[in-house]
Amino acid sequence: MAALEKIQAKTFWPIHIEHWQASGLSQVAYCRQHDLCPQKLGYWKRKSTVKPTTSPTGFTRIRVDGDRSSAPVPGLSLQFNDGIRLEGITQDTMPCIQPLLELLR
What we know:
By secondary structure, the chain is mostly helical.
């Protein structure tokens, strides 16, 4: 598989996995409806749930100061390479973030 095809697959399949899960259909029925290969959907589903064997890198500790303005702040969002997105991270939700990151590892 060429590099460009791998990049496209890494964005294509997570979207279909998310849509399949929301559809309530079986994998085979969803794939028939969208003209997809059920084995490939299964492969990418398994690939997206595999836990890394090495410790993740690239994270840094952050400190959130108190709100310095009166305007509402939408919060921080994190999106991981596998498509998982954490949104609305604020000072109030920071205590939940570390346990959530541990669970996602």
